[in-house]
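Task card 7
Instruction: Convert sequence to structure tokens.
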Amino acid sequence: MTQRDDTAVAEPAAPRNERIVAMLQTRGFVSVRDLAAHLEVSEMTVRRDLRALAKQDMIRLVHGGAALTHGTLRTPDFVNRAGTEGSAKRAIAETARRYVRDGDTVAIDSGTTTFVLAERLHDASPRSIVTNSIPVVQLYLGRPQQSVVVLGGDVIPESQAMVGSLAVSGAEQLRATTFFLGAAAADARGLYVETDSERPTKRALMDSADTVILLCDASKFAMSSPIRLATYDDVDVIITDAEPPADVRRAAEASHTEIVIASS
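Output:
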């Protein structure tokens, strides 16, 4: 196949980059291949444009393409948390995506680390996505090839999560292959969340899944939150970015919970 020559026909980079950002605002994620076809340039040119946009912090480079820096997120609290421990979250998400197989039904919790995982499932083939996360729903609006089941309920603006009796009732009627769980803090006694309104929905999603995988960057082991969510008996795998404290490892191993350290 003859390599496309961009030099004579391509539009200037600035308007082309505007089109790239516009596509991302609509879809949430765009692959290099789709961008090359849409812009009628080579994949090499698209990658060069994406690197330039990433340097300006206008987009985020992800496996196989690009996403907006904070997806389609809007609330300041979520955006701020999305930027915290960013490299750790990306490493955790890259490791977590290896646990997704073709045909799975994957439940994705609300939260910023789980959102990064959702971004990276574009080239995996889960049959269905179940979520109570508004940002994840927004992301998958641009991926019509995957079925999405949304849990309704009351909205927590800070986390953009849907919770409450309606969300719990919906989760109780579902079965997921894997639930990717988020938590605000963790110690040797277990996992914690910020508010009691989150706990019942997370618990219902945990009960719905064959396998529960906690996505937890190492900073969470030094944090404190008031509401106890679960013990390690309730979790099958912990994916984190650094060795957890010794007492956490002992507690997890006593519960036969696997600890996986993601490499950056």
